[in-house]
Structures are given as structure tokens and as C-alpha cells.
């Protein structure tokens, strides 16, 4: 099957670390190829040449006869030589490179595998482009593309702790220059990279956490701010939307409301943008994220731990304890003693325990008394 080559000229031997598939001792290049492209069956079934086999080959059975490299004695070896020459081109003069390349191409044509090699090169290029894109996505928080999908800019590069700090600081100063979706993308990237580089979340600017959706709203502040938007809004239709939104928030159970915070933030941002309120973010108007995620999760956890419900309202047991024993006189001296510490002050832990033990009737009585204070 193999045809004799035309008379070859000596290839320049001033070479530096040239590697074909026979010298890929670590199989690094082979593993890269095997994981990136479709390897033909005739390559997989090729008998591996050992040192004796190589010595038995004629010089004309190498694309680089001077160095006896890049075997082209079979379809499988020719394919391998072509791919290794493509991936790891040797440091030779242009004339030598052309000679080797032409020799491999001639062998590929003889064996009828030229299309297989071209296809493999195309797959490898596509794989490299995909890997480069993935690498960019892991390194940059915001990759800007045009309508055709071409990358036009890369922003918020984070490769280490210093990068986290710089990105967070820059975002803190410039976030309102970006639309809601971009702010969410960048802030979530900063939070992710902070975690990867061992930066505690409480070391990040609060706005980064809020823009990433890390937190819950303070319900009364949320309703007040929605009402404020309605008063500032001159568009009748949008004013009605804000009014309805405020009413919906008030009547929606807390656990259900927590399930739609992201949608709520997007909705507020959308109508803010319609009437131009987004231009006042940070200048008297809270952005949707600053409003919806105003209470951090650790703070929210503390609030829940200190929350106690009586009849219709939920109270902060710490604030109740601060009112002193006299605030609980309606419950009797036994109750006052039970909630007091050794200094006569109200102990929040004891108070919570006793409040939870109260009957429904007593809770209504105490709540009425506390509302009058």
C-alpha cells in the first residue's frame, strides 16, 4: 500500500524539543487529542511501534527522515503524525516545516485519510475555542458580546483574593451604571469567587450581597418604600401597579413571599425603569436589591431566633425584655419572677420560654397591654 517517496532532501537538524507520538512518553498530547476529538478506529487499532520497529523502518517512511520522526508507514501512524505535527509543530526553519507537512499530506492522500485529518483539526480547534470561552467565564464576571455573539469586552477579572477585593470595591462604586440583570450577574460572580478564594462574605461590601440576592426584606420598610414609589410616580398606570404591589405584599403570607423575592425585585426594577426612578438609585430611592434583600441572612436568622408571636403580632423578645418587669405586671408577680434574672432584670431567654407557655387568652391580654405602652 505504501508508495516510495520522491528523493528527499536533508531536513535541517537544528531542532529544540521536537516531539512526535513516539516520543510522547507522558502521553500528554495523546490524552488531549483523545479527549477533544473523534479518533478513527484505524488509529485505535494501530499496532504501537517499539524501538526495534522504528529501526526497521526505512528513512523514507518518516515525514522527517533526517530525524526519523513522524512515521507515515500506515494510515494510523500517518494520522497520528499529522495531529502531533499540528499540535506540537517543531522549531525548524520554514523550508523544513514545509517538507514535513508536505510529506504527511502526501501520505494521507495515498491512504485516503486526508478528510479524517482535516475533520480532526476542525474538532480540535472548536474544542480549544470552547475551552478558552469556559476559561473566560471562570475568570471574568461580565463578558460583553455584540448581537452576533462576538466578545467585545471583558470586565471584573478575578484570579485571587486581591482580585476579589478590587472587583467588590469597583462594583460598590459603579453598580448603578449597570442594568439589574448585569448587577445580578457580576455580584453573584464576586460572591462565588470570594468563596473560592476563602474571603468571608461579611468582608464584602453589603451591596454585593444584596445585589446577588443574599438576604430578605424588612416587611414594613418594603411596603413603605413601595408606597413612596407610588407617590413619586407620575404615570397613572405604573402608580396603580405600585399600589397593587404594595397591597399584594401586605396580604401574602411570609413564607410565600420569600419564594418570589427575585421576581419581586425584577418587577420593581422594570417599572422603576419605565418611569425613570432607576436614575435616583442611591440618591433617595433604594434600588430593588437594596430594598428586597435589606436584611442579611445571618441577621434574619438572629431575628427569627428572637421572634415570638403572641396573638396577632410578632415581637422581638429582646425589646420586650428591655421594657422591664413592670411591663408584665398584668401577668402577675409569679410571671414576673419567672422571667427575671438574679439582678432583677428580665432575661430574654426566660421571657421567651414563659411567653410560649401562655394560653391564647393570656397572650391576647398581654398583647393589648404591650400595645398601650
Number of strands: 6
String of helices and strands: HHHEEHHHEEHHHHHHHHHEEHHHH
Distance between the termini: 103 Å
Task: Quickly give the structural class.
Answer: mainly alpha
User: What can be said about the biggest beta sheet?
Assistant: 2 strands, antiparallel
From the spread of the alpha carbons, the general shape counts as: elongated
Q: What is the CA-atom radius of gyration, in angstroms?
A: 36 Å
Average of pLDDT: 86
Query: How many separate domains?
Result: 4
Helical segment tally?
19
Strand content: 5-15%
List unreliable stretches of 5+ residues: 1-17
Can you list the strand order of the major beta sheet? 1-2
The share of residues in helices is 55-70%
Task: Write up what this structure looks like.
By secondary structure, the protein is mostly helical. The protein folds into four domains: 21-123, no CATH class; 156-211; 219-298; 306-371, no CATH class. Helix content is 57%, strand content 7%. The chain is built from 19 helices and six strands. A two-stranded antiparallel sheet has the order 1-2. A two-stranded antiparallel sheet has the order 3-4. A two-stranded antiparallel sheet has the order 5-6. A hairpin with a 5-residue loop joins strand 3 (140-145) and strand 4 (151-157). Helix 4 (75-87) runs antiparallel to helix 5, helix 7 runs antiparallel to helix 8 (180-196) and helix 10 (219-232) packs antiparallel against helix 11. The N and C termini lie far apart (103 Å). The model is unreliable at 1-17 (pLDDT under 50).
Amino acid at each position: 500500500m505504501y508508495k516510495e517517496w520522491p528523493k528527499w532532501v536533508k531536513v535541517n537538524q537544528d531542532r529544540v524539543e521536537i516531539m512526535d507520538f513516539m516520543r510522547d512518553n507522558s502521553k500528554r498530547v495523546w490524552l488531549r487529542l483523545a479527549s477533544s476529538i473523534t479518533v478513527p478506529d484505524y488509529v485505535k487499532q494501530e499496532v504501537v511501534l517499539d524501538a526495534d520497529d522504528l529501526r526497521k523502518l526505512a528513512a523514507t517512511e518518516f515525514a522527517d527522515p533526517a530525524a526519523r520522526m513522524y512515521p507515515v508507514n500506515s494510515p494510523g501512524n500517518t494520522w497520528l503524525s499529522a495531529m502531533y505535527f499540528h499540535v506540537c509543530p517543531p522549531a525548524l526553519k520554514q523550508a523544513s516545516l514545509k517538507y514535513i507537512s508536505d510529506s504527511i499530506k502526501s501520505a494521507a492522500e495515498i491512504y485516503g485519510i486526508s478528510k479524517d485529518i482535516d475533520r480532526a483539526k476542525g474538532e480540535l480547534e472548536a474544542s480549544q475555542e470552547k475551552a478558552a470561552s469556559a476559561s473566560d467565564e471562570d475568570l471574568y464576571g461580565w463578558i460583553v458580546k455584540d448581537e452576533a455573539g462576538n466578545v467585545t469586552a471583558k470586565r471584573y477579572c478575578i484570579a485571587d483574593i486581591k482580585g476579589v477585593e478590587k472587583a467588590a470595591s469597583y462594583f460598590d462604586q459603579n453598580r448603578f451604571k449597570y442594568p439589574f440583570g448585569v448587577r445580578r450577574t457580576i455580584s453573584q460572580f464576586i460572591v462565588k469567587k470570594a468563596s473560592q478564594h476563602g474571603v468571608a462574605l461579611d468582608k464584602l461590601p453589603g451591596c454585593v450581597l444584596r445585589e446577588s440576592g443574599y438576604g430578605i426584606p424588612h416587611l414594613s420598610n418594603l411596603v413603605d418604600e413601595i408606597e413612596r414609589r407610588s407617590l413619586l410616580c407620575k404615570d397613572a398606570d405604573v402608580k396603580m401597579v405600585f399600589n397593587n404591589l404594595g397591597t399584594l405584599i401586605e396580604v401574602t403570607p411570609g413564607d410565600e413571599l420569600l419564594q418570589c423575592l427575585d421576581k419581586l425585585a425584577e418587577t420593581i426594577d422594570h417599572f422603576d425603569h419605565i418611569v425613570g426612578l432607576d436614575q435616583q438609585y442611591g440618591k433617595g430611592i433604594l434600588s430593588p436589591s437594596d430594598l428586597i434583600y435589606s436584611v442579611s441572612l445571618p441577621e434574619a436568622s438572629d431575628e427569627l431566633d428572637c421572634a415570638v408571636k403572641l396573638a396577632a403580632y410578632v415581637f422581638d423578645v429582646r425589646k420586650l425584655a428591655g421594657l422591664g418587669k413592670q411591663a408584665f405586671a398584668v401577668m402577675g408577680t409569679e410571671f414576673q419572677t419567672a422571667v427575671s434574672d438574679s439582678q432583677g432584670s428580665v432575661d430574654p431567654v426566660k421571657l421567651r420560654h414563659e411567653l410560649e407557655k401562655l394560653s391564647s387568652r393570656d397572650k391576647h391580654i398581654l398583647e393589648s397591654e404591650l400595645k398601650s405602652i
